[in-house]
Specification:
Elements: E1 3-10, H1 14-29, E2 36-43, E3 46-53, H2 56-83
Antiparallel strand pairs: 1-3, 2-3
Length: 84
Amino acid sequence: MKAHAAVHLQFSSEKLLKSFADALSPEVNQPVVSRAKVALENEKTYLVLRVDADNTIALRSTLNAYLRLINSITSVIELLERSS
């Protein structure tokens, strides 16, 4: 059974949105697994992460991987903002 999800991330600025998109794009362009396809789209102040997977297990694991990446990027950006 195919499974699909879309995660909408809202950003306060286009610069921040672009930073996240640039950081995630290598993972999207060269996926580690073939059980799911991931796409990034910009919609105004939102970055949309779309996942199409072979099944719910692949969907869950793919979403978890990208959410961990997003959390890591957020932590780095917060650290950089505090140190400047």
